[in-house]
Amino acid sequence: MDIYEALYTTRMMRRLRPDPIPLKAQARILDAAVRAPNGGNTQRWHFVAVDDRDLIRRFAALFRQGRALEFAKFASGAGPMAAPAPGADTAAHAETMHRMKGSGDYLADHFEEVPLLLFVFAIDDLGGANIYPAIWSALLAARAEGVGGVMTMVLRNFADEVNELVGVPVEQGWKMSAMLALGYPLGRWGVAANRRPVHEVSSRNGWGKPFGVEVPQPLWPSQKASTGSANE
């Protein structure tokens, strides 16, 4: 798969089929993840793959409770996604949140059917600087395998319960960074087109100064911008 196809079409997939992911595919996904850059090559990460159906059912109950907590915050105007980014369209943000809630509801309602949960743990991660490249590499590798997924922080609302269920040695400093729900998607891959264009969210040599090129449409697969080739 072309690297740009992977980058442009890897998106959060919350509607997943129950079909199991072969162990060899899981190994390739995690082998790609551990090649990610990390400060000092300290590799302070650990991945716990969960495909035990009883464990997944127990996490499903916690996930639904966590979503109720998160959306209660959202409804009150709190939480990180309640307000759009400065300059973003309020109506478009509301529509995005509506769609996301719909797909999130599907995941919550069918959580017991998810074939693989991947819990990601780290030590002293400086806000995620080391672990998020590994997570993104895992999602890109999953895309190459035809596997979709979504990264979620919802279960961090129940970190103690998660730690107990998977036996995390918290005394060593391990903390859950995120969880990935992985499976073959029900939907289709496609370019995430509902993005503010590069020239609206980027500057050059100072905040608010023109970036220098306009990109009104995604550059992949055409690789062309309105002002010429992306290589110019």
Automatic annotation (TrEMBL):
UniProt keyword annotations, A-Z: Flavoprotein, FMN, Oxidoreductase
CDD domains linked: Nitro_FMN_reductase (cd02062)
Residue ranges occupied by any Nitroreductase domain in the UniProt entry: 10-184
Signal peptide location: none
MF-aspect GO terms: oxidoreductase activity
One Pfam match: Nitroreductase
SUPFAM superfamilies: FMN-dependent nitroreductase-like (SSF55469)
InterPro entries: Nitroreductase (IPR029479), Nitroreductase-like (IPR000415), Nitroreductase/BluB (IPR050627)
UniProt protein name: Nitroreductase
Upper taxonomic lineage: Bacteria, Bacillati, Actinomycetota, Actinomycetes, Mycobacteriales
